[in-house]
Design goal:
The protein is of the alpha/beta class. It has 9 helices and 6 strands; from the N terminus they run E-H-H-E-H-H-E-H-E-H-E-H-E-H-H.
Length: 185
């Protein structure tokens, strides 16, 4: 049962390609969902000092991480990539595998391309991979749904934002809980 839990001292957050031009291609429902849920996770990660790694696919063509999210991840390490699978980029691979963190919480776009390929490589690298079900998107709902189903089959855990945030919070009544609880209203 321990394999299904998320421990804040053993986790990092991987933010894949939530960039200006890719983000604009998402349906407005996905845009709202990503902004809200990613903000919850980023603020929770910031509160607990959970490291964040940001990837940006071909920045020249797709732009940078959207400003609304970039502004709340000031300490994140940002890497440009050209491979769809972020683990094929040596700097990113070194950063993740060189970390003592064994759980990688993944948000981003597109679920069936970069998120999918990266998550498969992370699973193959013996990392506990948690896909944020309401923190990933694709232009087409069927593509996202298929990616989520295949990643579950491959061994990734699929949890919604609030489940992850409350696992990291662990209990009510703490200073962290009081600070973050308005995000869940």
């Amino acid at each position: 049962m321990q394999d299904f839990m998320i421990n804040k001292s053993d986790s990092l957050l991987l933010i894949i390609d939530i960039q200006e031009r890719l983000f604009q291609a998402m349906e407005s429902d996905y845009q709202r969902m990503l902004k809200k849920n990613c903000a919850i996770l980023f603020k929770t990660a910031n509160e607990f000092g959970i490291p964040m790694i940001v990837t940006e696919q071909y920045r020249k063509g797709l732009g940078e991480t959207i400003p609304e999210l970039k502004d709340i991840i000031p300490g994140a390490k940002v890497f440009e990539k050209i491979f769809f699978d972020a683990m094929k980029e040596e700097e990113i691979k070194k950063e993740i595998l060189g970390s003592t963190k064994k759980t990688v919480i993944v948000v981003g776009i597109e679920a069936h391309i970069c998120v999918f390929q990266t998550a498969l490589s992370l699973v193959a690298s013996a990392r506990n991979v948690v896909i944020v079900s309401d923190g990933v998107a694709s232009r087409k709902k069927d593509d996202k749904d298929s990616a989520i189903a295949m990643l579950r089959e491959a061994g990734a855990l699929i949890y919604p934002t609030e489940t992850i945030a409350f696992m990291l919070l662990e209990q009510a009544g703490t200073a962290e809980f009081k600070k973050l609880s308005p995000l869940f209203k």
